[in-house]
């Protein structure tokens, strides 16, 4: 059985830096409403991806002071076993989705690297790439099913926190939903690159 079922959503964020930065927001009414919505989904027996323990993997693997690059996508993969809390990433045993194949192909074309044999981007996260979806959860088989439930405001808060970094971060915003996340970023300090979503559907 999934031991994380007894955990609250906020308990799943274990990185102390991010926890401290988000303390006020995670006790705010908007975040509590999001928690309530997700608890009602889980209690109703609805399958939600990624598993609860993985929802904040992007933050747990990439501490706030290590963030150099932020890749913003839309929402998690909605197939069984795919999403594990890192935007665009899948576990090593899972076939690479079309979006990720396109990402790898573009990187290979640009800088001549070999295309990886698996689609797990954990090593990117550990090197300072925050793999952030605009919405962090989804119902099985239903893309965008958790849009407008409170995640957008949460990830806006993440962008606001990162915007305060004076060292300069590169933000890669892929797709219309992600592109809107860049409106408040200080482009005198940070680099913002907007492009289409890597999905074959655009």
TrEMBL record:
<feature type="active site" description="Proton acceptor">
    <location>
        <position position="75"/>
    </location>
</feature>
<dbReference type="InterPro" id="IPR002043">
    <property type="entry name" value="UDG_fam1"/>
</dbReference>
<dbReference type="GO" id="GO:0005739">
    <property type="term" value="C:mitochondrion"/>
</dbReference>
<protein>
    <recommendedName>
        <fullName>Uracil-DNA glycosylase</fullName>
        <ecNumber>3.2.2.27</ecNumber>
    </recommendedName>
</protein>
<dbReference type="GO" id="GO:0004844">
    <property type="term" value="F:uracil DNA N-glycosylase activity"/>
</dbReference>
<keyword id="KW-0227">DNA damage</keyword>
<dbReference type="InterPro" id="IPR036895">
    <property type="entry name" value="Uracil-DNA_glycosylase-like_sf"/>
</dbReference>
<dbReference type="GO" id="GO:0097510">
    <property type="term" value="P:base-excision repair, AP site formation via deaminated base removal"/>
</dbReference>
<dbReference type="GO" id="GO:0005634">
    <property type="term" value="C:nucleus"/>
</dbReference>
<keyword id="KW-0378">Hydrolase</keyword>
<dbReference type="Pfam" id="PF03167">
    <property type="entry name" value="UDG"/>
</dbReference>
<dbReference type="InterPro" id="IPR018085">
    <property type="entry name" value="Ura-DNA_Glyclase_AS"/>
</dbReference>
<keyword id="KW-0234">DNA repair</keyword>
<comment type="function">
    <text>Excises uracil residues from the DNA which can arise as a result of misincorporation of dUMP residues by DNA polymerase or due to deamination of cytosine.</text>
</comment>
<dbReference type="InterPro" id="IPR005122">
    <property type="entry name" value="Uracil-DNA_glycosylase-like"/>
</dbReference>
<comment type="similarity">
    <text>Belongs to the uracil-DNA glycosylase (UDG) superfamily. UNG family.</text>
</comment>
<feature type="domain" description="Uracil-DNA glycosylase-like">
    <location>
        <begin position="60"/>
        <end position="202"/>
    </location>
</feature>
